[in-house]
């Protein structure tokens, strides 16, 4: 089974401030990591490959340093990696991101299954997975807890989808996009050996010269939405604030609970 | 017909989701400034009971599509059906609940309609282009809840599609009936799907206890030091509350993911919600809806959680809980 996994490199910390003069966003942390939700997608892909055979290729769209995220994925057990990078892709919203990733995947070669993480820790829209499916005209399922290939032709798999607080079993025809639920598995850790091997791996790079997406479809130009302002949230504590020493606060708490239960 | 504010209507077991009424409030605020009529888009296998419920709400038009034969899980086919309906309706804006299914369906719909989708808006404002044409500015949190951003759809990105979190807008006021037109959409053969529903799986007892719990005690990162988590467990047991946690607690193995509340975890509707050491990042608060009593204990007076609960306590949660346990044990 040939599996593509799309990941994103995100800042380690979400701490940001707004420059009081320029109103520009400043990230406090220059450190980056693989988006935590994507680790579950990587683990799902590598485990499937271990069980069913095949190849896992990891894709990411980002600036050149996003290559680090690909190295982490390789060190977990992915076979190959592709960096989708071009100045023209900068400033992309979810639509432009999905289009670039989809084009790269199509250019790379046929896959049976595409996996992504549930959402990024910075943007947290959860949109790119479903949009990728739309670009590639494939079915998609979100919140996937587990995947089981079926021995059929045409290829299909059954999966368990997390729904609110229970779960359902679905069958999906391949190729398909599966968005893996946060916490669905236990992502394996790289070993020293696998990290060293990952360092030496040749990574494919796709710039727009290779992908040939029209200028109107990429980066800021290709984004139907735009952020026009960043600002600090106003915090008005709208709660009624209780006061007193801890003992009094505890009593007030218990009284509120008893009253609410008495109201039923 | 074109040029309205179209609300995507969600429903479970023949009953409208409460968020529908909240989106109507949002639409009314937009309508007051733009004059754009308020519309409902309803896709269901059993339309009549839902149409009846919609008839007492202030929609100018209701567009209804019978989706018998298309599973609610067939998001490939369903998103195509929704896009086709919106191409007929041609609204200026689409308001969508930021819910489990909609979050999966509407990214595809946006691409099909060659427009954009703003996720998890917390406020909407009407502004004007130079020529006086109104447009909607959408505010939402970013980077956790560290900052807010304002987002616009570009002029050629129509309709402006946005998801709105439940609990952001109040339910709409009940009004005397306005004349409402029902349009039954026909799409001939519904789109095919590569997805088949096989079976529902019984919830794990953990998840089951959480979703049915009348009272929930949620612990956040602030509870990881010292004895606090143990205190929380004892207190939860004493007041007969289910114990749950924010994502960092599940990430670090203190609680299973089935006990995690928030955008990537469970969404629950307990009667009583008490949080300890929870900062109130939006990815968590989204997981709690409609609690009758909500109390937050956090030592940080600026914690975002204090904007989302009824009662706030600025204190060390460990102190408060140990006193509360003493009081309960005295009885």
In the predicted model, the low-confidence regions of chain A spanning at least 5 consecutive residues are none
The end-to-end span of chain B amounts to 65 Å
Mean pLDDT value of chain A: 92
Instruction: Give the strand order of the largest sheet of chain A, numbering strands 1, 2, ... along the chain.
Output: 11-10-9-12-8-1-6-7-13
Q: Count the strands of chain B?
A: 18
Shape type of chain A: globular
Main sheet characteristics of chain A: 9 strands, mixed
Please explain how this structure is put together.
The complex is a heterodimer of chains A (264) and B (331). Chain A has seven helices and 15 strands. With 264 residues, chain A is an alpha/beta fold. In chain A, strands 11-10-9-12-8-1-6-7-13 form a nine-stranded mixed β-sheet, sandwiched between helices. Chain B is an alpha/beta fold and 331 residues long. In chain B, strands 7-11-6-1-4-5-12 form a seven-stranded parallel β-sheet, with helices on both faces. In chain B, strands 15-14-16-17-18 form a five-stranded parallel β-sheet. A three-stranded antiparallel β-sheet of chain B has the order 8-9-10. In chain B, helix 3 (75-89) crosses helix 4 (100-112) and helix 6 runs parallel beside helix 9. The interface between A and B is large, with 84 and 98 residues.
In short:
The complex is a heterodimer of chains A (264) and B (331). Chain A has helices at residues 36-52, 67-76, 94-108, 128-136, 192-200, 208-211, 246-262; strands at 2-7, 9-11, 16-18, 25-27, 32-34, 55-61, 80-84, 113-116, 140-150, 156-163, 166-173, 176-180, 204-206, 225-231, 240-242.
């Amino acid at each position: 089974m040939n599996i593509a996994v799309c990941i994103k490199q995100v800042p380690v910390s979400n701490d940001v401030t707004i420059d009081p003069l320029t109103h520009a966003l400043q990230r406090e942390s220059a450190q980056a990591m693989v988006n935590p939700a994507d680790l579950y997608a990587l683990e799902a892909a590598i485990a499937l490959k271990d069980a069913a055979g095949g190849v896992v290729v990891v894709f990411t769209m980002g600036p050149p340093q996003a290559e680090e995220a690909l190295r982490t994925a390789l060190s977990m057990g992915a076979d190959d990696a592709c960096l989708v990078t071009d100045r023209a892709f900068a400033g992309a919203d979810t639509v432009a991101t999905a289009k670039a990733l989809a084009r790269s995947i199509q250019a790379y070669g046929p896959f049976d299954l595409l996996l992504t993480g549930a959402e990024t820790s910075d943007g947290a829209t959860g949109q790119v997975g479903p949009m990728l499916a739309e670009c590639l005209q494939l079915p998609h399922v979100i919140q996937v807890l587990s995947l089981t290939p079926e021995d059929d032709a045409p290829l299909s798999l059954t999966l368990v989808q997390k729904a609110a607080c229970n779960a359902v079993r679905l069958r999906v025809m391949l190729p398909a996009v599966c968005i893996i639920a946060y916490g669905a598995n236990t992502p394996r850790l790289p070993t020293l050996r696998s990290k060293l091997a990952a360092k030496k791996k040749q990574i494919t790079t796709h710039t727009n010269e290779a992908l040939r997406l029209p200028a109107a479809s990429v980066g800021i130009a290709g984004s139907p939405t735009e952020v026009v302002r960043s600002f600090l949230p106003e915090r008005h504590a709208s709660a009624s604030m209780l006061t007193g020493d801890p003992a009094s606060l505890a009593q007030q708490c218990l009284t509120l609970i008893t009253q609410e239960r008495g109201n039923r | 017909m074109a040029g309205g504010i179209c609300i995507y209507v969600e429903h479970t077991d023949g009953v409208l989701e409460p968020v529908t009424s909240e989106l109507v409030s949002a639409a009314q605020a937009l309508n007051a400034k733009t004059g754009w009529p308020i519309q409902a888009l309803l896709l269901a296998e059993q339309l009549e009971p839902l149409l009846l419920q919609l008839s007492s709400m202030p929609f100018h038009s209701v567009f209804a599509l019978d989706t018998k034969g298309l599973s609610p899980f067939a998001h490939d086919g369903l998103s195509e059906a929704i896009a086709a309906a919106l191409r007929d309706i041609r609204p200026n804006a689409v308001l969508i609940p930021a819910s489990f299914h909609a979050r999966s369906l509407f990214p595809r719909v946006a691409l099909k309609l060659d427009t954009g989708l703003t996720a998890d808006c917390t406020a909407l404002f009407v502004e004007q282009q130079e020529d006086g044409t109104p447009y909607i500015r959408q505010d939402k949190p970013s980077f956790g809840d560290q900052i807010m951003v304002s987002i616009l759809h570009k002029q050629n990105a129509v309709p402006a599609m946005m998801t709105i979190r439940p609990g952001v807008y109040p339910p709409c006021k009940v009004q005397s009936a306005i004349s409402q037109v029902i349009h039954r959409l026909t799409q001939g053969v519904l789109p095919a799907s590569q997805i088949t529903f096989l079976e529902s799986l019984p919830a794990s007892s953990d998840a089951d206890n959480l979703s049915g719990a009348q009272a929930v005690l949620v612990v956040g990162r602030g509870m990881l030091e010292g004895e606090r988590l143990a205190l929380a467990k004892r207190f939860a047991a004493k007041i007969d509350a289910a114990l749950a946690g924010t994502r960092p607690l599940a990430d670090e193995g203190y609680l299973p993911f089935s006990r995690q509340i928030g955008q990537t975890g469970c969404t629950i509707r307990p009667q009583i919600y008490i949080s300890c050491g929870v900062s109130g990042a939006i990815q968590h608060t989204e997981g709690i809806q409609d609690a009758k009593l909500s109390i937050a204990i956090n030592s940080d007076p600026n914690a975002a959680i204090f904007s989302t609960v009824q009662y706030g306590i600025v204190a060390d949660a460990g102190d408060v809980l140990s006193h509360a346990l003493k009081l309960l044990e005295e009885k």
